[in-house]
Design brief:
The protein has three helices and 21 strands. Strands 6-7-8-9-13-12-11-10 form an eight-stranded mixed β-sheet, with no helix packed on it. A hairpin with a 5-residue loop joins strand 4 and strand 5. Helix 1 crosses helix 3. The chain is of the alpha+beta class and 339 residues long. The longest helix is centred in the C-terminal third of the chain and has 26 residues.
C-alpha cells in the first residue's frame, strides 16, 4: 500500500510540474523587517496608513489588531472583547476604520459569516452575512473607495467566487450577499506555500491601493494586480491582471499596499519577514487593460499562467495517469515478481 501511494504522489507531482509553463518573474521582493513578536504567530491580514502597519492573526478568541512600526515591532494593540469565529483578512477604510473579515470556514458549516468594523479606539460593530448559494471559505477581503466590501472565496480548484452585500450592511444582520463574478486561477511555477502544486490557486488575501485604482489578490505564491481606473472592484476583477511572484513564503496570507504603491506581503509563523515590492502599482496600466507598464519591473499577465493547466484538469489528469501507472506496475509485478 505504501509503495502505491508513493507512486501516486510522484505521478501527481510530475503532472502538476508539467502543467505549468515557465513564468516571467517580477523583481524579487525585498525583506523590510522580520516579525519576531510571538503574539503574531499566524499573520493573516495586513494594512498600512503610510506611517504604521496594522496586522491580525488567523482565528483568535477576541478582536485584536496589532499596530506595528516599520521595524515590525508592536507599538500597541487595538482590541475588543467581541469573540469572532475565524478572522482571515483585514482592510482599512478612508476614515481609519479597520474591517476584519471573520469569514474563514474550512469545514463549510457556518450559517453566517461576518465583518467586524473596529475603530482606532477599540469600538467594534458586528455585521453578519449570508451567501446565496451555500457555505464558502473566504480569506480575502477587498474594500472599495466607497466602503463596499467584497469577499473572494478560497477553493482548491482555482474557481473563486466574488461576493458583495446585496444592500446596506445591517448590524447585527444578517445582510444577504450576492455573487457578482468569478475568477479562474491557474497553477504557476512559483515555489512556496504549504500545499504543493495547489498553493498557487488558493486565494489567501486581498488589498486595494490607497487611490482605489489597483485591486490585488494573492495566493500562497503569487500576487495578482488588477487595474481599477474608476475604483470599481467588480469590473477590475474581470480584467487581465499583472502577476507578481512572491516566492518561498511558507504560508503567505497577508497582502497590503503602501500609499506610495509599494506592495507588502507576509505570512504565518514567528520569525517570518514582511517583504516589499516597490512601485507595484506602476506595473499596472489602466489604459491598456493591465499590461505591464514599460517603466515598471518585469511581470506576467493573467490569473495564473495562461499557458498552464487549470487546477481541476491537472488533478483529473494526474489521477488518471497515476491510476494507469499503478495498474501497469501491478501487472508487471504479478508477471515478473516472485513466484
Amino acid at each position: 500500500m505504501t509503495s502505491r501511494w508513493g507512486a501516486l504522489l510522484a505521478v501527481v507531482s510530475f503532472v502538476l510540474a508539467l502543467s505549468v509553463a515557465p513564468a516571467t518573474a517580477a523583481e524579487a521582493p525585498a525583506t523590510v523587517c522580520t516579525v519576531s513578536d510571538r503574539r503574531i504567530n499566524e499573520l493573516s491580514g495586513l494594512v498600512s496608513d503610510g506611517q504604521r502597519w496594522y496586522a491580525i492573526n488567523d482565528g483568535g478568541s477576541k478582536v485584536q489588531v496589532f499596530v506595528l512600526g516599520r521595524d515590525c515591532a508592536v507599538q500597541r494593540v487595538i482590541s475588543n472583547s467581541l469573540d469572532p469565529y475565524d478572522v482571515e483578512d483585514l482592510a482599512r477604510a478612508s476614515d481609519g476604520t479597520l474591517w476584519l473579515s471573520d469569514t474563514g470556514d474550512n469545514d463549510k458549516k457556518r450559517e453566517t459569516v461576518a465583518l467586524v468594523a473596529l475603530t482606532p479606539q477599540g469600538k467594534a460593530t458586528l455585521y453578519r452575512l449570508t451567501y446565496p448559494d451555500g457555505q464558502h471559505d473566504v480569506e480575502a477581503l477587498l474594500l472599495d473607495p466607497k466602503g463596499t466590501p467584497y469577499l473572494v472565496t478560497k477553493t482548491p480548484f482555482g474557481d473563486s467566487g466574488i461576493y458583495r452585500p446585496a444592500g446596506a450592511l445591517k448590524s447585527p444582520g444578517p445582510t444577504p450577499l450576492e455573487k457578482v463574478g468569478s475568477l479562474d486561477f491557474r497553477t504557476t511555477d512559483t515555489p512556496g506555500g504549504p500545499v504543493a502544486g495547489f498553493g498557487s490557486v488558493l486565494v489567501t488575501g486581498g488589498a486595494v491601493s490607497a487611490d482605489g485604482k489597483v485591486v490585488a489578490l494573492r495566493t500562497y505564491t503569487d500576487a495578482y494586480l488588477y487595474p481599477a481606473p474608476d475604483g470599481d472592484v467588480a469590473a477590475a476583477l474581470k480584467r487581465s491582471p499583472v502577476r507578481v511572484p512572491l516566492p518561498n513564503e511558507k504560508q503567505g496570507e497577508a497582502l497590503a499596499f503602501e500609499p506610495d504603491g509599494t506592495l507588502l506581503s507576509g505570512g504565518e509563523g514567528v520569525g517570518e519577514p514582511i517583504r516589499a515590492v516597490r512601485g507595484a502599482t506602476a506595473l499596472v496600466s489602466a489604459a491598456d487593460g493591465g499590461a505591464p507598464a514599460a517603466a515598471g519591473g518585469q511581470a506576467s499577465t493573467g490569473t495564473g499562467d495562461q499557458k498552464g493547466m487549470g487546477a481541476l484538469p491537472a488533478l483529473v489528469l494526474a489521477v488518471c495517469l497515476a491510476a494507469g501507472g499503478l495498474f501497469v506496475v501491478g501487472k508487471l509485478r504479478r508477471r515478473f515478481g516472485r513466484k
